Amino acid sequence: MSLAIRRRLKEIAAAAAVWIAAVGTWEVAGLSYLPVTPEELPLTAALILVVLGLLILLGLYLGGRRELLASLRERARLAEEEQALRSAQAADRERTRIAREMHDVLAHRLSLVALHAGALEYRDDLDAAEVRATAGVVRDNARTALPELRGVLGVLRDPSGAPATLPRNRRSPTSPRSSTRPAPSASRCTRTSTPAPATTCRGCPRPPRGTPTAPSRSA
């Protein structure tokens, strides 16, 4: 039966032939405990062949069932690996998307910092209150840009494979100081310094590189 379980037909045929020859020789030589008469010999041979066939069929069935279970386990393992790979790729795409959105907002903040700093550099007709207001806008945007930069790096470095989320404490691109105080450098120097909303996405146009030098041109 062990040869039949292995499902190798040549080995099964060779073993069956040897076994039939050995049993036949044993019976013909009269070495059996129950001697067989010539009249009973055909029936005995048929019985031996039936038992041998049943053993071979049982071994083939067990071997096929074993191979089927092994193939099912292998398919399940491959499916799990493929699902894990797809989940990891989806998480990477989600982290990249969030990082791009945060990059757009961060780029807008830095452009505001450069814009107001350029206004302070080139405008010499501002009074002390206007200078303090513009410096406050620069300070608030620079302070808020640091955690946003850390958030971008954290999203890109996340090894857990779970989709990252935006920081909860992220404020809008316009700080409370810039929304409550008038920004003289922005109102007098350029009309393109209006802060964008916090939901700036990667599809929105980024601030042009020449924007920080706009105060110098208008001044």
Automatic annotation (TrEMBL):
Q: Which Pfam families match?
A: HisKA_3
UniProt entry tagged with the keyword Kinase: yes
User: What top-level class of enzyme does the UniProt entry assign?
Assistant: transferase
Membrane-crossing segments per the record:
12-35, 41-63
UniProt cross-references to InterPro entries, sorted A to Z: Sensor_HK_TwoCompSys, Sig_transdc_His_kin_sub3_dim/P
Regions of compositional bias (Low complexity) in chain numbering: 172-188
Q: What is this protein called?
A: histidine kinase
Question: Can you name the source organism?
Answer: Clavibacter michiganensis subsp. michiganensis
